[in-house]
Structure formats: C-alpha cells, structure tokens
Amino acid sequence: MKVLSKLSKRGFLNYAIVIAFYLVFQILSVTGNLSSSLSGQLIPIVAYVIMALALNLVVGISGELSLGHAGFMSVGAFTGAIVATALQASVPNGILRLVIAIIFGAIFAALMGVVIGIPVLRLNGDYLAIVTLAFGEIIKNLLNCLYVGVDGKGLHFSLTDANSMNLEADGITILNGPMGALGITKISTFTSGIILLLIVLFIIKNLVNSRTGRAIMAIRDNRIAAEATGINVTKYKLYAFVTSAALAGSAGALYALNYSTVVPKKFDFNTSILILVFVVLGGIGNMTGSIIAAAVLTILPELLRQFQDYRMLVYAIVLILVMLITNNEKARATMVMLRKKISRGKGKEAQS
Amino acid sequence: MLTNLINGISLGSVYAIIALGYTMVYGIAKMLNFAHGDVIMIGGYMAFCTTSYLGWPVVPSILFAVVVCTILGIVVEKLAYKPLRNATSLAVLITAIGVSYFLQNAALLIWTSNPKAFPNLVASIPSIELGGVRIANTAIVTVIANLIIMVALTLFTNRTKMGKAMKAVSEDKGAAQLMGINVDRTISLTFAIGSGLAAIAGVLLCSAYPTLMPTTGAMPGIKAFTAAVFGGIGSIPGAMLGGILLGIIEIFAKAYVSTQLSDAIVFAVLIIVLIVKPTGLLGKKVSEKV
Amino acid sequence: MTEKKETKLVSVPSTTMIPERDINKPLVLEAIHLGIEFGGLKAVEEFNIGIGATEIAGLIGPNGAGKTTIFNLLTKVYQPTHGMILLDGKDTAGMNTTQVNKEGIARTFQNIRLFDKLTVEENVKVGLHNHINYHVPASILRTPKYWKEEKKAHMRALELLDIFDMADMADVPAASLPYGAQRRLEIVRALATEPKLLLLDEPAAGMNPAETEELMNNIKKIRDEFQIAIMLIEHDMNLVMGICESIAVLNFGKVIAKGTPSEIQNNPQVIEAYLGSRKEEKA
After folding, report:
1. What are the pLDDT digits (tens) for A56-79?
2. Which chains touch A (3 or more CB pairs under 8 A)?
3. Could you say which of C114, C139, C193 has the minimum Cβ distance to residue A211?
4. Distance (Å) from the C-alpha of residue B118 to the closest C-alpha of chain A?
5. What pTM was estimated for this model as a whole?
6. Is C142 in contact with A206 (CB distance < 8 Å)?
C-alpha cells in the first residue's frame, strides 16, 4: 500500500511538474519576458519530452533498446503534416485539425511499430537495438523518396518525383521527397502540446500500474521466469513497443505542425541518440527524470549557444559516465553507502 | 554486370575486414562494439594527416594509423567497457554508443565537418584491364588485403597459444580463467586486433571512396555489423562471406534498383536474416543456461 | 532408433507407486520415454514417470545427473528430442513454456529467478496475471472493473503470501529479500498461477535445519490446501524422505531406481550411485 501511494504520488508529481512548467512559461510569455528564440522552442521541448517518455517506456520499463525512435517520430510527423494539409479546407478549425493529425500520426506510427515489432521483438538485446536502428534508417530512406500531393480528387502518391503524381492545377504537393513536407500551416500550440503531454503521462502511468505493466516489467527483470509464470513474452514486449511508437508518433505530429517545413533528415540516427541521452541522463525507468532531462537539455543549448560545438561531445561523455557510475558494481556500492549515510544523517536530525 | 560484381566484391572485402572486428569482439566479450565503425574513421584521419600534412610515405602512414587505432581500441576497452563486464547488455550497448558518439564529435571538433579529399594511397599499383573490364587498383589491393588478413587470422586463432586462448575465452570465460588464461588480457588483445584491422579497413575504404568526414565510419560500421550477423556472429569465415555478399547486394541494389534505397535494401537483408536464421549463415546457436 | 520408440505404445509409468488416494483419479503428469540430446550427448534418456493428482514426488541424484534438465523438459525450456509429456492426459508437444504454465505446470528455479525490481506483492501479482480479468483499455481508463480486479488480486496476493508469513513484506523489492525468503517467494509466485503440478528445484538450498523443517510443513500444507501434485528436486535427504511419497533416483541421465522412501533407502544401486562402489571406497 505504501509503495502504491508512493507510486501514485510520483505520478502526480509528474503532472505537477508539467503544469508548473506550463504556467511559468505562459506567464513569462504573456508578460513579454520570454525571448523569441526560447518561445520558438516551447513546442519542440514538449515534443522531445514526449519522445523521451515514449523511449523510456521501451528502455526503462520493457528493458529493450530502440535506436530507431526518431523513425516513429518522423512517421507521426509526416502523417500529421499530410493529414493536416489535406484537411485544410474541410476542417477549418485549427485545434480540431491538430487533434485529428495527432491521432492519425499516432495510429500510423503504431502500425509501423507493429510491422517492425512483430519480427524484431523475438530477437533479444543487441540484435533488437541494431534492427531498430536499421528500421529507422529504412523509414528515413523511404520518406526521402516519397512524394504526396493533394487535389480535388484526393491524395496522390509517388515514389519517383513530384511530377509523376499528375496533380490537377489546384493541387498542392505536401510531401516533396528529400525536401520534406512543405507549406504546413502552423497549428500546434504550446497549450495543446502540454495537454498532449499530460495525456501521454496519464497513459504511461496507468499502463505501468496494471497487469500489463507488471507483465512487461517481469519480462524485463527475468524473461525465463516470466515465461514460466505464464506471461506471453512477445505479446507484452509488443504492447510496450507499439504504445511507445504511438506516443512517439503523436510527438512527431505535434512537432511537425509547429513548422512550415519539415525534412526527413531531421529524424535521423542523431535524433534517436539525443532522445536516448535524455532517457539515460534522467534515469532509465524514471519518468520524472526523463521529463526534466529532456526539457533542460533542450533549453540549455538555446541559452548557451557559444558552447554549441561542444554540446554533442559533452553528451557523449555524460552518456558514458552515467552508465559507468550506475552499472559498475564498485561505483554502485559506493552510491548505496553514500545514500545510506545521507538517510542516516537525516534520521538523526529527526530524532534530535 | 561484371564491373558491378567486381565493385561489389571490393566493397564487400572492406565490409569483411570491418566485420571481423565486430565478430571477434562479439565472440569474446559478448558485446556489440558500436564504436567500431568510428575507429575506422579515426584510422582514415590518421592516414590522411600523416600523408597529406606531414608528407609521410604510404607504408609508414598506414602503420601509424594501425598503431594509433590499436592503442585506441585497448584504451576504450579499459576505460569504458571493462568496468561493465558484469553489467547488463543494455548498459554496455549504451556505453558503446556513447563512445561512438564521443569519437565522432571529437573528430568533428578536430577536423571539422568539411569533407577531406583522401589521397589514393595505392596509386603506385596499376589498375588492370581484363577482357574489357577495368579493375581498379583499390579493388585489387582491397581483395588481396582481405585474403591475407583472413588467412593470417585463421592461422592465428588455430595455431598460436594466444589464438587458442581467444577461442577458449569465447567458449566459456569462467572455465578459461580456471585453465590459467588471462581473460582480461585476451579481451584486450581482441580489441587491439579488431581496431588494428579497422585502421586498415579505414585506409582501404577511403582510398575507394575518397571523402573523409567524422561520420565516414558510421554507416560502413553498421553495414559491416550487418555483414557479421549475416555470416554468423563469432565466425571468422562467416564475416568474410557475409561481408562480400553484402557488398555485392549493395552495389547491385545501387545499380539496378535505386541509389537512394540501397541502404534500405541492405538493412532489409539484415532484418530478413535475423528473422529467418538468427544465427546467420555460418554461426552456431547459443542459449541461456537455466 | 527413434522409430522403435514411437511404435512402443504401452504406457510405461507404473501406477503402483501412486498414493492410494490418487488411484481413482487420472495422473496429473505422465512422461513417456522422455529424452533430450545435446549434440549427441544424451543428457536425459528413457525418463518415465507418472505422478498422481495430489502426490508429492521426489527427484534425487548426484550433481549433473540431469534433474534440472528434466524440469526444463517438462516446462519446455528445452524441447525434448524423444518421448512425450502428458499433462492431465493432454499431450504438451508443440507447446512453449508459457502455454505449459497455462495448462498447469508451475516451477521454481535452482538459481533463483525473481522479478528483482518489482515488489514482493507485484511478483505474486505477475503470477496471478492470467487470473486477473481486464484489458489494456480498462487499465488506461481505470474503469471500475480495473479497480475491482486489482483489489481482488491484492487480496489474493496477500493470502498467498500468508502461507509463508510473508504478507508484511509485500511492499519490499524482491531483490532485497533475504535468500530464504526469495526461495519462498518463488514458490508463492508459482502457486499464484494456479498449477496442477508444482515443480520445486532445490527449495531447501541454503536453508538451515529449522527453516527446512518449516518448509517441509509448508510443502505438505500447500499440497493439502490446494490439492495439487508437487515434484521436487532436493539434496536434503531429511526433507526428501520426510515428505515424498515416491522417489525417482537419477544418475547419468537415467532413472536407476523408483519407489517409496524406504525402498529407495535400501536400494543397493542408489547407495552405489551416492557413495560410490565398495571397490572405489577401499581404493
């Protein structure tokens, strides 16, 4: 019961952090104290936080490494862009269009998650990581060759070039191969992003604290014991993976609809790694950590532009150090001792 | 057609040499050394700097690249991987990705992202015309180097004491230790050999595709891992076979399907292999002890 | 070789060993000509056994005799290369570990395998997984059904933990339990899956005599309360002789003796397998 209440408190802590974040930036923005570069970053920050949460569901809860999550984000982004542009005339309400675009982005990314997950999740560990990486690259390559347009007759697709879609005179090219999605109307707002983030948190929290979540974590902790306890390993790994893909897709749609153009190259391996850095730095399996790490590491480089060149190098070193500190037995023993000392110190204070 | 085949074998030979590094390290340390591809890039830059800036002759500059990469391999293993010998594979893999990222970004700071034009280090060897098909000198050197390395490595693992120790460690670390084999040193040696080979692969790769960037090693690295998996991870002949097949597939995909989609096709091969035969062409099955 | 075995249709396990109370009930487990080869090495061969519905059976033998391998075969961690396994009369050929558990075999492991980062209660709830009745949408939307089922699972988990007086440890992470408690938790988790047959792999390993005594009583209690069959691998002869109604002795992958505890204790072959032959002893 104690852990349960602790857990739910934790969940509420996450909501509280997000709402506080929203209020602070909203007040800064209304009072005109927010620099334009930072206010332009608000929606990307929210999108990256959602990405970090989605990846943490796979890495922290399911215990598998995905190196292709940017791929799911891009599926969501381009699906969202296509849907939003195609519905421009029929659904004039921007918010409603955004909601539809995000839902479609999530659905398509989830479908891609199923397509990838079914063959891949039978593999374990390193193979799975490399295959997700490969899939991320394949998605990027395919999007680089994909042309989508819309005219009075509906959507047109081509894998060769824009002209072969034979659009009518009033038609518009939405997706132009390597040039990406063009002429997107910006309909994402900070408020809608925060609402999406809260929904994502709600989904993850409730999924983790359920029989499904327990099964997923059981597989992570001991696959063989989970099998012997009647857990269908592939099924529950797939649940985690597909849910994560869907959430990443929603983040992608939110992200894309904040810009007028988005290119496939934006969602490459480096983006996948960046999100992994958020997850590792925030603590694998720690959702609160993911939120803070993703937000801070997206805002900081904006503030410290002069260190831009060293940013990635520092990330790399941080990644290595965090793994060494948290996984080396000696280092871990020292940490445990330190923690005990600190808590003992606190206990003494309380007594006196 | 024939030209494509030759190009494919040539590219595949480079993959094979890189794949050897993956396969040996995977066989012994049971880890995917994600940074292996970036060691190639470092090897390339070393050869580039010594020849282009310092004007060294070809052979010493290649040797220098090999030495630097060998040391780099050992140092990385000692600092980043050794402390994690008993950690989960997830932790080791993330660390390896960190190392890979570190090398790439360090190279970016040192040499900037501007591509360097790599000099053809094998220019002194003539290209051959055979029945109307020109075989580039780089292709000849690559294939010959690949054959020599393969034979040398096979002899090394089967005939020498150190080589046998490597085999023993890959079979059973604990038992090998009980037999008096220094496991740490054996793993170090494996990293050293793999990284030294990566330097050679770097030189060959850059001679054939003469643009050198901090990200040069990343893609060939991942593809070579694909080749290692294709051939059966842990198997030396498997790495050779997988590398050459993958090279041929890639060149043919470029020639007959689409340049843009050739990478996608190569990765699709990886996925199909892993689904149909996860142990690869020449690999053997390992299962967890219960 | 294998063809010959398949043509033998006579059921081999003798029912004479089954305790009297189980004679009129169908056997919960029948293994017939069961065997596995690892690359030509016969780790287990010609393993035949029948276990009554509420029997406590023991599997003993020297280290490396193939005892755990038999558990791995029964739970399909390894697929047998020979013979068949009938669970409640149903052939388990083609099933995997998960399906075998759903059909009614649960087990513990020699080297403890708990879900380390989950709490004690959560470990048991994973065992209850297939008896908790709601799906993903219900858990995300927190429907009344979710709360009802979770409450039921919570109560059931505490009830099961109470068998070993562990209910007060419900919120402790499994990894931080003392060794003996970890072994007991594994048993509770296995029980939670509502098995017909419970396989215990060295349940008393690392326990002191007092703990072992308590474990013996609890194993009997589990059998009586749940009316299930239990098969256990154990080196502690006091435990084996004290609670097992039938014992099979394994050596080099083959059964060398079967019988009641007193029969086994007086069997010369068993004595030889355990103590070595007289000649060796002299030498």
Report:
1. 999 999 999 898 999 999 999 999
2. B, C
3. C139
4. 25
5. 0.87
6. yes
